[in-house]
Here is the input.
Amino acid sequence: MSRLYSDYLMPSRLPAYEQFIIAARELGYTQTSLRDFHASISRGSVHEEQKVVVHRHDIDTDLRTARKLFELEKKYQIRSSFYFRLSTLDFSFMREIEDYGSEASYHYEELATFAKKHRIRDAACIQARMPEIRESFSRNFRAIERQLGAKMTTVASHGDFANRRLKLNNTEVLNDQQLRDSCGIRCEAYDQALLQSFDFYVADRPHPKYYHPSHPNDALGTYQRICFLTHPRQFETNWIANTRDNLFRLYEGARW
Here is the structure.
């Protein structure tokens, strides 16, 4: 019932996101993208006393709500990162994000995709095929860059039901420095060095929990460096996008 409520009945949570932006601004937090934050810490230009919120959006399914998040951020002149799956790529929207000064990049899932395509359920077998998976990532990454017309320097792994069954994350794809160097990737959103630079990391959750580990507003004024991960799907219902995704997931699960 919780999934039904989240996907089809839940009132919009966008006002809560707007309230968070306002509260962070009033407390003097810089609100920025993962790309810009990583560049700043790499230069050593983020000071201990500086208050920062890094906004990260993983666009799993819902482009309509992603645009609403973007419009809210433009209203308050803040920056963020939007990560798009192959299934949610919208190059016009992505260029608009980049032109504004926020970040549009890749929400990759080649490991899970490969496992499902080849019906592989053994983690060791996937590890043995990692060169093929990394080659697929490289092709997709470069193709997106070409169409986007901008350099992508950070990426974020997508979490799939296949990853949970395999107990193997998509981040395994980028456990290869040569691949990172060849693609010009400076940071993966789950890199430990990046995560350790935050004092507080909060992610949205479906109804009824909404946030983990706690409400992001509770972190304001208590922590200096906050990362706030959101998914458009968790902030507003979209019947068409949610139904399409739910049906496709059922198909993939049955086929795999």
About this structure: The mean pLDDT is 96. The beta strands are 30-32, 52-59, 81-84, 103-108, 154-157, 187-188, 200-204, 211-212, 225-230. The first helix runs from residue 2 to 9.
